[in-house]
Amino acid sequence: MPTETTVPLTELVHYFNKRNRLVCSAEGEDCFQIVDGHAQARFRGNVLTTLFQPVVERASGQVIGHEAHLRVAAGEWVGGPAQGVFLEARDDNELVYLDRLVRTLHALNFLQEREQHGGFLALNIHPQLLRAVRGHHGHVFEAILARCGLTPERIVLELADDGFGKLACLKAAVAAYRERGYRVAIDNFGRHSACLDRLEALAPDLVKLDRSLIGHAGHLSLAKRVMTELSAEIRRLGAQVVCQCIENPLQLQVAQDAGVDWLQGYRLGRPATHCLPLVRPRRPREAA
To answer: 171 pairs with which residues across the strands?
Structure first.
């Protein structure tokens, strides 16, 4: 079953290219294009594409959504970290433009995926965007989603927090996004800080534990104890817990034993061009 939109990809690409030129003064070479049925975006000589990684519900073992990852298919940043392309932005305005360009790219490609009815799309927000955009967070992107036939309820926005920046700015952004219907995840929690008081003030829907907490061979017993205690505290604050970067069976077992809500990592599915299908519940047969 296709996702909600009935607008052809070609029409959407034409619309967003025209919009970018008029609203954002994008350079002529910076645009969306369609290659082999997938949307690509060009920015400063780099060709950007989308990869999807599945997120699995621990209790059911079923895929419930996907996180979109940026991939550089051509240009200076091929073979390096894809996020490096943001270093090409000349100022805050251009960085905000690029961040929205990337999220629009992911939304366009998500729309082409079948068997995603009811599944969510997780998108990363560049930290600098929160400092560059003073208010009305999510308003512009909501209009972009509406054009695609998506709603904020289908989107999880992932925000990184180092635990040391000003709380007020991030708190306001989280509140604004949630008010518009987006779900918000605090990403890489525990990498720099694991302050539960700060987390309680932010009040996200989801907390993604940093990869350092899952442990490695020889340290899994400690990882299990830490993750179990931390997951219980996060759930007490009203958020769901996501364990990411699960790469082997032992790490998967630790995450399951710790009782996290969602699972993500290479062991469960690598980033790929296409989403994994969601299993839809069967309708009960009507009595004869």
So the answer is: none
* pLDDT over 90 (residue 271): yes
C-alpha–C-alpha distance, residues 4 and 256, integer Å: 33
Asked whether residue 141 carries a pLDDT value surpassing 90, the answer given is yes
Structure confidence at residue 71 as a pLDDT band (50, 70, 90):
very high
Torsion-angle region of residue 25: left (phi > 0), alpha (psi -120 to 50) or beta? Answer: left
Nearest alpha carbon to residue 42 among 97, 1, 114: 97
CA distance 204 to 274: 28
Enter the tokens of residue 272. 């790929």
pLDDT digits (tens, 9 = 90+) for 196-229: 999 999 999 999 999 988 876 456 778 888 899 9
What was the pLDDT predicted at 283? 55
CA distance linking residue 55 with residue 265, whole number of Å = 8
| Helix (H) or strand (E) segment spanning residue 70 | strand 63-74
- The rounded distance, in Å, linking the Cα atoms of 188 and 199 is 12
**Contact between 267 and 248 (Cβ < 8 Å):** yes
pLDDT tens digits along 84-96: 999 999 999 999 9
Does the CA dihedral 78-82-84-87 come out positive or negative? positive
Q: pTM for the whole thing? A: 0.91
- Identify the residue whose tokens are 């030129």: 21
Backbone angles phi, psi at 258, to 5 degrees: -75, -15
* Distance of alpha carbon 184 from alpha carbon 137, whole angstroms: 12
Strand partners, 33: 40
Q: What's the rounded Cα separation, in Å, for the pair 274 and 272? A: 5
In this prediction, residues 4-12 reach a mean pLDDT of 76
Distance CA 258, CA 252 (A): 10
CA distance 124 to 50: 12
